[in-house]
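hiii so my PI (J.) wants the whole complex modelled not just the main chain, which honestly fair. so below is everything: two entries, each one labled with what it is. i double checked the lines twice but i was tired so who knows lol
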Amino acid sequence: MHAAVIVFPGSNCDRDLAVAFERAGARVSMVWHKDTALPEGVDIVGVPGGFSFGDYLRCGAIAANSPICRSVVGHAEKGGYVLGVCNGFQILTETGLLPGVLLRNANLKYICKPIELRVETADSPFTAGYDAGQSITVPIAHHDGNYFADAETLKRLHGDARVAFTYVDNPNGSVDDIAGILSGNRRVLGMMPHPERMAETLHGGSDGAPMFDSLVDQLANA
Amino acid sequence: MKARVHVMLKNGVLDPQGEAVRHALGSLGFDGVEGVRQGKVIELDLAETDADKARANVTEMCEKLLANTVIESYSVEIA
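here's the output for the full assembly
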């Protein structure tokens, strides 16, 4: 299984994401934002956390219009897999691959701590290693993680079981406690919490590891 | 030719920064501020000399980058 991790100026979770994929058995290519094409044969693109382009204008807005993001959108439109974590989730909403937007946290504070998530669906290659309803602990580290979408979009997300994760104790004001969502074909996941920062026991927990294990398992056999 | 773009959160989208400003004004003794909405002003220097073309061009910039129309509305002034 071949994963590409995009590196923007200001990315700071790119190495963590690459290590999490490698630990699960993937081959990883780091791809610079100015590149115009993904490496041949990439199964999944990881869009990492950080502060791409200093969060100028809006979080993720400049990165979403970078040369490589056109290829990432093309990859997703052809049925390719994409995982966006934290700033990566913000970037995916800005590209339009995922609906809604991440607003400033309701309490206006940057929040960095482990939090409890509920797995809402196991029906995706990202969440197949969990049970629906299972509770997992992974860290959040964001200032703009307050998910917002209009009522019609939310109805569609809930109706199609596209909410992947919710917060057990909502830290940031996200509508319906939403922490992560899937695309319509369930091959694009965006989430604010960081599974790659809880992927081995040295991290203090490994609740994020099943995501990478199941991705590598399912995409290697695809 | 100059253009000025105002970007504001749409009505109905909670503006926590505006709310914080409202609270701060209240604690400074400015009573009666019932609502604060915080937005952005973006000024552009354009080579274009035709106002209609400039407006159309800046509108496209707003749609593609300057505003996120899921949550933000914008207005364009050409001067």
